[in-house]
Design a protein that fits this description.
The protein is mostly helical. The protein has a single domain, classed as Heme oxygenase-like (Heme Oxygenase, Chain A, Up-down Bundle). Helix content is 78%, strand content 0%. It has twelve helices and no strands. Helix 2 runs parallel beside helix 12, helix 3 packs across helix 9 and helix 9 crosses helix 12.
Length: 228
């Protein structure tokens, strides 16, 4: 995975470098290592896929709010489409696994958000409501970019009969790659107009979302739930 599509002074370049160690931890963490090997226990993936479906609803809402805050028509279209893809395209992926695992609408609706999922969704929605457009872009970017990087890494070493092949192919695919490149470019454009203090808040948002990416996968691996 490259450090970004922008020039050497682009926000994305700097943000990726600052969080490179965190990404390496995510890439090699047990959940993703076992997912790539095809040895991840089904109950762990099932936990993940249900929570991820819940997460995508909140993520879609945050993207819709980013569309409302976008400073130009192209941005409105880009983020509106991203929100649609989060709800329609990615949920179609989840739906395939839901059928395989016998997870019906009532089971999904009756499964509460875990602390990690609730934290991540709440963080993105808080940023969507309270932060300016450029900071919101930085908070949303890791979900795109880290998934693409992890998907590419796993795709390069996954065996053809990996039981999670549909997940791998989605995030290593060309369509998702185009969405990621577009999100990187949009974030870099927003950063160009940002003040030094706003750019610093963008870095804080990117780092926090990166931490939450790790927490989400780690939570699924540990089957973490509310302690009371």
């Amino acid at each position: 995975m490259t450090d970004g599509d922008g020039g050497p002074n682009a926000f994305s370049q700097a943000a990726w470098v600052r969080n490179a160690a965190a990404y390496e931890t995510i890439r090699t963490m047990p959940f993703n290592a076992e997912l790539g090997a095809g040895t991840l226990r089904q109950d762990r993936f099932r936990h993940y896929i249900v929570q991820d479906a819940h997460y995508l609803i909140g993520f879609g809402r945050a993207l819709s709010l980013a569309a409302a805050k976008a400073p130009d028509p192209d941005g409105i279209v880009q983020f509106s489409r991203a929100a649609q893809d989060a709800i329609v395209v990615e949920r179609a992926l989840h739906g395939g696994f839901f059928r395989d695992y016998g997870i019906g609408p009532e089971t999904f609706a009756g499964t509460p958000l875990t602390p990690a999922c609730h934290h991540y969704v709440s963080y993105l929605l808080a940023a969507a409501y309270a932060e300016p457009f450029e900071v919101l872009c930085a908070a949303l970017l890791p979900c795109f970019w880290i998934y693409k990087a992890v998907g590419d890494d796993i795709f390069a070493r996954a065996v053809p009969d990996n039981p999670y092949r549909a997940w791998i192919d989605t995030y290593a695919g060309d369509e998702f790659a185009a969405a990621v490149s577009g999100m990187i470019a949009a974030t870099d454009r927003a950063a160009e107009q940002a003040s030094p203090s706003a750019r610093a808040r963008m870095h804080d948002a990117f780092t926090q979302a990166t931490r939450l990416e790790w927490l989400f996968w780690d939570s699924a691996y540990r089957d973490a739930a509310w302690p009371l």
